[in-house]
């Protein structure tokens, strides 16, 4: 992939202050993108923005809660105000969930997972698409999960919310393909980012690795390379897909 194929393209990225988001922001900055970065945690977000500015990137950092429809609308407005357009949006912000049996899953578990993992993506897409309709199109990538295209034992609430992300992705792709708006989702297997490793014991991580046909977890950099492929301008005929990056687990 050319090192500057995102040059002068405006990218809105949520969940930027950790995991996939931080890695992706770095790659996009090096490729010449203009970045509107957002995260719920303001201090690590600003630290990332400062680092990327020192590397020569054009970066605006806006703390926001993806559960707030108003905040998601304001992120799009901020990107347009700063850079004049919105070319690419990556709805990466999300939450994990403690593993528990289906019958022990509570309404609060469902509500929290839907608020962050499903409604957050919906609110983002709603205003991103509105802006892209005023332009010559655009590209949206939603971060779902392998749990969004199959079952996920002991993760019922998370699985339901990530299935919602895939459904929203495909629906929006069908509605707006004729407007040159591409919408895809990436469905990663477990990857050792802080979202997974914080509070997770080594035995469980080893068990999760064994479930993959490759007998390992997916490295964050491997996931980010797939994300870059999905949003790359040259992949202009790719839309409506939920791409599994899972070491063959979904096969």
From TrEMBL:
**InterPro entries, from UniProt?**
KR_dom, NAD(P)-bd_dom_sf, Sc_DH/Rdtase_CS, SDR_fam
The record's section on Gene3D superfamilies has: NAD(P)-binding Rossmann-like Domain
Q: Which UniProt keywords apply?
A: NAD, Oxidoreductase
For the Ketoreductase domain, which residue ranges apply?
A: 9-189
* Enzyme category, top tier: oxidoreductase
Q: Name one GO molecular function term.
A: glucose 1-dehydrogenase [NAD(P)+] activity
What's the domain of life for this entry?
Bacteria
Q: What EC number(s) does this enzyme carry?
A: 1.1.1.47
Give the matching Pfam families: adh_short_C2
- Report the PANTHER family cross-referenced here: DEHYDROGENASES, SHORT CHAIN (PTHR24321), ESTRADIOL 17-BETA-DEHYDROGENASE 8-RELATED (PTHR24321:SF8)
Task: Give the protein family.
Answer: Belongs to the short-chain dehydrogenases/reductases (SDR) family.
Q: What is this protein called?
A: Glucose 1-dehydrogenase
Annotated organism of origin: Mangrovimicrobium sediminis
């Amino acid at each position: 992939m050319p090192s500057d194929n995102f040059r002068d393209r405006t990218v809105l990225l949520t969940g930027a202050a950790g995991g996939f988001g931080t890695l992706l922001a770095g790659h996009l900055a090096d490729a010449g993108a203009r970045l509107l970065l957002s995260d719920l945690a303001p201090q690590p977000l600003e630290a990332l923005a400062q680092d990327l500015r020192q590397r020569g990137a054009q970066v605006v950092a806006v703390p926001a809660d993806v559960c707030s429809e108003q905040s998601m609308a304001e992120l799009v407005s901020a990107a347009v105000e700063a850079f004049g357009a919105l070319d690419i949006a990556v709805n990466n912000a999300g939450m994990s969930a403690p593993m528990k049996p289906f019958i022990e899953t509570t309404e609060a578990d469902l509500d929290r997972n839907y608020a962050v993992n499903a409604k957050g993506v919906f609110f983002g897409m709603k205003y991103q698409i509105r802006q892209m309709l005023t332009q010559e199109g655009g590209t949206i990538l939603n971060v779902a999960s392998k749990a969004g295209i199959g079952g996920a034992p002991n993760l019922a609430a998370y699985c339901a919310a990530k299935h919602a992300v895939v459904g929203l992705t495909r629906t929006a792709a069908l509605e707006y393909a004729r407007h040159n708006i591409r919408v895809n989702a990436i469905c990663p297997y477990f990857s050792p980012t802080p979202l997974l490793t914080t509070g997770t014991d080594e035995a469980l991580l080893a068990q999760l690795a064994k479930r993959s046909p490759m007998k390992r977890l997916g490295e964050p950099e491997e996931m980010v390379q797939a994300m870059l492929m999905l949003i790359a301008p040259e992949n202009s005929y790719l839309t409506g897909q939920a791409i599994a990056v899972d070491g063959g687990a979904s096969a």
